[in-house]
Amino acid sequence: MTNKIAPSILSADIMNLERDVKMAENAGADLFHIDIMDGHFVPNMSFSPSVVEGMNRVTDKPLDVHLMIDNPEEYIKPVVEAGTDTVLVHAESTHHTYRSIQMIKQLGAKAGIVVNPGTALENVKELFPIIDQILVMTVNPGFGGQEFLPGMTKKIQRLDQLRQTSATNDFQIEVDGGINDETITKCADAGADIFVAGSYLFGSDDFEGRINKLKDLVED
Length: 220
What we know:
Elements: E1 4-7, H1 17-27, E2 32-38, E3 45-46, H2 49-58, E4 63-68, H3 73-81, E5 86-90, H4 97-106, E6 110-115, E7 133-137, H5 152-163, E8 172-176, H6 183-190, E9 194-197, H7 199-202, H8 207-217
Parallel strand pairs: 1-9, 2-4, 4-5, 5-6, 6-7, 7-8, 8-9
Antiparallel strand pairs: 2-3
């Protein structure tokens, strides 16, 4: 399973988004991570399905849409129709996680579940056989630029162990929050496959150098 770097456009220059997307693409981004926030589930607001549609027009890279919203079922169809490849739904945002995953798959996209730092993996174990990804939040969701929560490496490790307990658990482990050249190695060693990086990449004058460094650190 090849490790992948996913720049988070939450940290990009929104007034020059196409420029930043092309820069990231040319630098070797494997996919793009798009946070949609409603100001209720998390204390911030960002983007909409129209941004997904715009991204789909300017890049051929897969789009990884993270729904940080209440009632995510209402946004699943719009974001899939806008061109997303993977839809990620928070376990804490709906009582109907199984139904949400089914909806995503029926619409032809890959489906993932997201767990906040305080959410136990046992709460989502029943979903393992039907998901394509599980995103472990390594910060409290809502804002970019936060520091990595060191206790999350043990959670990633436990998740990787659970993944190996059954042949039906064929999902990828994604991490999001505080990912940089120090924390990425810890996450990779614990078993993560996809690494979302925002301010570490877009906050640098040497985007290509930093993405190459991250790739070198997680090479199989």
